[in-house]
Each structure stands twice: as structure tokens, then as C-alpha cells.
């Protein structure tokens, strides 16, 4: 596996474009197109929130139907959530317009929306945006980057990555882009992730690889504990690498899934680290667990603790908050056996041993916790399993961004 430059346009046959439709923002791009030169096999995972946005319902139908897709239309600023039958109608209007201007089957057009909930979509502006996107589509790395920028809301930076793998003697590329900063607590979140690959792969294998990986990547991040109405991950495979077809249970499938994991984990961590108002990516790693599930529950409880998140913001080694969060997680463990460490580029320090504080330097701990990426490692000494979860610190900036988000 090799990391390469680029995102959604890195794989053969994929193009992208960006446009400023003025849906909500007046000073930036707010629409993106991902386009494949040939129809793609598709896979997807979606929010577990009972309140699902219209684009989520639309995409679920497309993915479940088995229809091939050649385009994804994404807008930022307006979520098209809680908009009733009218909102679902906007999805059909979007797909029909994309089909018209791109010359493709509208029934396979996929849609992503993010932004304010409850606001109706200015559909004529959206249609005009699609018309602007079509002639601009290009396969350049720059086109992919600009598309990644266009789907941002409160994000401070675009998020993209690409890798290559060898399937027998053929090079296969996987690239992706994502957005997400607030309302992040996946069981999916107001996160959108779009992944493209030129692999020849069965739909069953594509969906299986994605569904198996999401619980350990996107579902292990949290910014604010709010599971969004719009969370969507879409994976498109156009087969233009012309490799031997990848099927479930083969070594090639495992290699593809490992590469997909690199893509998903990278994008998930970028979302967590770019949380609204955040100054640091905060990772909780639980080791020595008796089961994977126990480790995941404990790690997620730590990164979701607001008191722990504020301690990270203050660079304060307030370890009692971490042990407390583990205690109410629902997972069973012996608190009198837990060892806890903090680690960053500035070093590693042990804070507690067997549930009680060791004689550590507060000054050294503060230095370690002042880095832009910080890890808490909890060893529960019960077995060989481990898991990581990712979040961010909680600052005054989160309130400033969300107190007047609609305006």
C-alpha cells in the first residue's frame, strides 16, 4: 500500500467540480460534483438517527436498488432535513437536473447535503449550481481539492486522502474526501464522506468492506455527542483499473479492506481533530481489554466526556475525569487495576498505576497535553484486545460557533 497525493479524483476515470450557488453562503463555494466516466457499483452507510434527511433516504434507495451511479451532487449550507415530502422532491429534482446536464441515468444519481436543518432548499439556485458544475468537471488533483473545500460548513480545512494497492499485477487506487466539524457522534454524524476507487469489485464485496470498517472508524469519533440527521458515507467503484474482480473472502478483498480502513480512519481522525472550536485531536486508546467491544465502549466514553474534553483544552492532567467516564460507560472492569498514560510528540508520562496517582510532574504532563495531538492510554489489564476512539478538546469556540449557527 502506498499513500499518494490527491482525493476523489486520484482513481482512474473520476472527475470533480465546485461551484458557488449561493444557497446559504455568499462568499464561498457551496456545491460539489463527483463524476465517473463510466457507471459505478455503489455502497453506502448512513445515520442511525430516526430523523433522516431527504438525501439520506434518497441515497439509501439508490444503494439498495443496485442501480449503478455516475455522479454525486453535494451541497453545503442547507441540510434538506425535516423538510417533508417537498424535501424528498428536491432530491428528485436534483437527480433529474444532473441526469439532464451530464447525460446520465438520473435514477443512479447520489446526493449529499449538510447545513441548517428545517430550511427548505432554494431548488432553482441548486439547479443553476448543477449547470455550473457540469462544464467544470476535471480529473485534476486540484479539482478534487476544490470539491473537498466546497462541501465544508464550519470545517476549517478540507479533508482528502488517496492510496494505491496492488491487486495481482494491477495498480488499484482508492481516494476520498470528507467534511465534518460539529454535530459529530457517528453512529454516523453531520459528516459526509465520499470514496472513489477504480477497482473491479462485486457490489457485495464493496458493501461488506465498507460496513465492516465503519464501526472502527467513523463510529469511533465524537465532537459533541450529537448524532446528525445527514450522516452519509458513499463508496463508488468504476472498475477502470481492469484488475481481476475482487470478491469476498479472498486475499485481494482483505488487501482492499485494509486500504479502505486507512482512508476511513484518516478522514475520521481529520473530522474529529477539526471539531468546532477545537485546538487538539484527542485520542483515547484502551489496551489490555478482554474483548474488542469492552475496549470500544471504554474508549468512546473517554472521548465523549465533556469534563475530560475541557481538561484537554486546559492542558490539565485531570485523570479522575477519565477514570470516572470509564466507570459510567457500562463496561465492567476493576478500577484498582487501571494504569493510565498521556502521550504526544512531547513525550509520554504515566499518571496512575493500579487506579491511584503516581508521583508525576504536573509541568511535564502539561507540556505533553499542550500538543495539537494528544493520546490517553488506559490499560485495564484484563486481556489482549484494544480499541481507539477520537475526539477533540471542548473550548469556548464551540459555543461561539453554535450559538448563532442559523444566522
Automatic annotation (TrEMBL):
Record GO terms (molecular function): L-glutamate N-acetyltransferase activity, acting on acetyl-L-ornithine as donor
Binding sites annotated in the UniProt record for substrate: 153, 179, 190, 276, 402, 407
Sites marked Involved in the stabilization of negative charge on the oxyanion by the formation of the oxyanion hole: 114-115
Protein name: Arginine biosynthesis bifunctional protein ArgJ
Catalytic activity as recorded in UniProt: L-glutamate + acetyl-CoA = N-acetyl-L-glutamate + CoA + H(+); N(2)-acetyl-L-ornithine + L-glutamate = N-acetyl-L-glutamate + L-ornithine
Transmembrane segments: none
Alphabetized UniProt keyword annotations: Acyltransferase, Amino-acid biosynthesis, Arginine biosynthesis, Autocatalytic cleavage, Cytoplasm, Multifunctional enzyme, Transferase
Described purpose of this protein according to its UniProt entry: Catalyzes two activities which are involved in the cyclic version of arginine biosynthesis: the synthesis of N-acetylglutamate from glutamate and acetyl-CoA as the acetyl donor, and of ornithine by transacetylation between N(2)-acetylornithine and glutamate.
Signal peptide: none
Organism encoding this protein: Claveliimonas monacensis
Subunit composition and interactions: Heterotetramer of two alpha and two beta chains.
Recorded family membership: Belongs to the ArgJ family.
Taxonomy, superkingdom: Bacteria
Active site, per annotation: 190 (nucleophile)
Metabolic or biological pathway: Amino-acid biosynthesis; L-arginine biosynthesis; N(2)-acetyl-L-ornithine from L-glutamate: step 1/4; Amino-acid biosynthesis; L-arginine biosynthesis; L-ornithine and N-acetyl-L-glutamate from L-glutamate and N(2)-acetyl-L-ornithine (cyclic): step 1/1
Amino acid at each position: 500500500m502506498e499513500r499518494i497525493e490527491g482525493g476523489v479524483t486520484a482513481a482512474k476515470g473520476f472527475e470533480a467540480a465546485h461551484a458557488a450557488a449561493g444557497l446559504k453562503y455568499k462568499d464561498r463555494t457551496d456545491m460539489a460534483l463527483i463524476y465517473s466516466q463510466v457507471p459505478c457499483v455503489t455502497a453506502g452507510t448512513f445515520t442511525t438517527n430516526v430523523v433522516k434527511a431527504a438525501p439520506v433516504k434518497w441515497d439509501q434507495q439508490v444503494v439498495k436498488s443496485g442501480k449503478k451511479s455516475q455522479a454525486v451532487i453535494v451541497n453545503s449550507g442547507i441540510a434538506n432535513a425535516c423538510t417533508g415530502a417537498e424535501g424528498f422532491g428536491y432530491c428528485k429534482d436534483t437527480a433529474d437536473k444532473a441526469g439532464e446536464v451530464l447525460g446520465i441515468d438520473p435514477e443512479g444519481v447520489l446526493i449529499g447535503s449538510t447545513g441548517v436543518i428545517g430550511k427548505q432548499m432554494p431548488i432553482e439556485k441548486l439547479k443553476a449550481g448543477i449547470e455550473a458544475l457540469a462544464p467544470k468537471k476535471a480529473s485534476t488533483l486540484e479539482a478534487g481539492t476544490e470539491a473537498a473545500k466546497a462541501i465544508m460548513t464550519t470545517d476549517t480545512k478540507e479533508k482528502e486522502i488517496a492510496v494505491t494497492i496492488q491487486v495481482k499485477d494491477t495498480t488499484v487506487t482508492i481516494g476520498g474526501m470528507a467534511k465534518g466539524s460539529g454535530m459529530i457522534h457517528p453512529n454516523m454524524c453531520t459528516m459526509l464522506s465520499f470514496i472513489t476507487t477504480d477497482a473491479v469489485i462485486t457490489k457485495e464485496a464493496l458493501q461488506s468492506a465498507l460496513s465492516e470498517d465503519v464501526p472502527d472508524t467513523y463510529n469511533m469519533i465524537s465532537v459533541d455527542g450529537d448524532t446528525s440527521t445527514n450522516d452519509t458515507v458513499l463508496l463508488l467503484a468504476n472498475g477502470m483499473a481492469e484488475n481481476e474482480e475482487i470478491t469476498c473472502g479472498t486475499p485481494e478483498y482483505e488487501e482492499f479492506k485494509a486500504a479502505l480502513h486507512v482512508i476511513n480512519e484518516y478522514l475520521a481522525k481529520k473530522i474529529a481533530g477539526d471539531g468546532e472550536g477545537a485546538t487538539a485531536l484527542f485520542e483515547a486508546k484502551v489496551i489490555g481489554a478482554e474483548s474488542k467491544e469492552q475496549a470500544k465502549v471504554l474508549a468512546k466514553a473517554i472521548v465523549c466526556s465533556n469534563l475530560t474534553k475541557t481538561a484537554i483544552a486546559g492542558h490539565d492532567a485531570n485523570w479522575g475525569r477519565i477514570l470516572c467516564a470509564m466507570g459510567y460507560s457500562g463496561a465492567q472492569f476493576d478500577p484498582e487495576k487501571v494504569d493510565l498514560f498521556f502521550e504526544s510528540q512531547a513525550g509520554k508520562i504515566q499518571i496512575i498505576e493500579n487506579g491511584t496517582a503516581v508521583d508525576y510532574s504536573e509541568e511535564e504532563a502539561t507540556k505533553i497535553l499542550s500538543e495539537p495531538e494528544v493520546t490517553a492510554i488506559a490499560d485495564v489489564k484484563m486481556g489482549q484486545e484494544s480499541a481507539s476512539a477520537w475526539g477533540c478538546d471542548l473550548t469556548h469556540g464551540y459555543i461561539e460557533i453554535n450559538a448563532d449557527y442559523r444566522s
